[in-house]
Design a protein that fits this description.
CATH architecture of the largest domain: 3-Layer(aba) Sandwich
Strand content: 25-35%
CATH topology of the largest domain: Rossmann fold
Number of domains: 2
Order of helices and strands: EHEHEHEHEHEHEEEEEH
Number of strands: 11
Number of helices: 7
Oligomer: single chain
CATH superfamily of the largest domain: NAD(P)-binding Rossmann-like Domain
Helix content: 25-40%
Largest sheet: 6 strands, parallel
Length: 218
Amino acid sequence: MRVVIVGGGKVGYYTAKTLKEHGTEVKVIEKNLQTSMKIANELDVSVLSADGTTVEALAQAGTSKADVFIAVTGSDENNIVACELAKRRFNVKRVISRANNPKNVKIMKLLGADLAVCSTQVITNLIEMEVDSELKMLATLSGGEAGVVEVVIPNEFNSEGLSLSQIDLPKNCIIVAVVSYGNMIIPNGHTVLKPGDLLTAVVSHGSQKTFKKVFSKK
């Protein structure tokens, strides 16, 4: 697999390092010459010291042959430009961008990024899910837009006695497993939850509050 990375800061450096260790062919584009030399010497990867927001630099780095393009500079504006060029000019199938400001995630996706990752948004969503929703986060999905969560069904909860097919679950929510009396089952529409059951579900960020209400105490 061939990957082109724009940005040789900490994120770009460790992304390149990890990919190289997994046998991926990596090309880094970094504007700062000293940073470029450091990456080339320490990681033994191909580095182009140039502006990754220009067609010339992307072409020289072989972006048209890349399987994945990653823009992780410290500037959202530069990441947006680089991703748009990679997607629309060089037809890269998988384009990933770093978003420093959560407000820029949407525009990045509109202009070429298949996935825009914002650490601030991921952390915020994690805190909201742990504190506000009283759900235990197991993993985040799609840059924090959804999460795999666990919740213990309380005594006398709102949907007690109802089968899953009878419960008005929120949109973008899938219950994937239930542990009842130590036994794990894959639930279906006939499954009836009981107090003490451990529920595992995939829930979108926007559906968390509704999900909480369904399995809260009366």
